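Q&A log
Question type: sequence-to-structure
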Amino acid sequence: MPRRSRAAPKAIYQLKVTLEDVQPPVWRRLLVPADIRLPKLHATLQEAMGWTNSHLHQFSLRDRHFGDASIDGELEELNMEDERKVRLQDLVGPGQSLIYEYDFGDSWEHTVQVEEQLEPDSRFPYPLCLGGARACPPEDCGGPPGYANFLMALKDSAHPEHDDTVTWAGGVFDPEGFSLNSVNAALAALR
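Response status: OK
Response body:
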């Protein structure tokens, strides 16, 4: 069966996504269709940042919150709107931002800023990562404060939690690691 071809986007947003409360900053610069629906933006952010999509998430703009409607009965309880019904361009435009929160326990907050609106270029597939810095923290490390402790223990072989941290991290974790090619390969699977 032939694949349906999606209509070319009418506009592209250049986004800068920054993980809050982590130093030095972990960030990604992405090109996405302005009319991307929030579930697809969620999947894009998961791949671009390096998360494993193992926890709940929400998008927030002022007093509005958008989440995954497949969570039975949870949207009302969490005071969220159905993210499937919302396109990014309906919420923000150039110079504006929203918050993407991943893992309500660790509370990884990302500022998603629309840096500019561009004309689509037929030579490029979207979503596309243009750049970034640093590795995403490991899942379930305790949010920004836990990640800071994780890095201290990892870096200092005399730290009382060093050996346990190295074992928990699987033996290797490079906080400076970022591969543009790996991110774009992961994003290609979303197209």
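Response note: Residues 138-175 form one domain.
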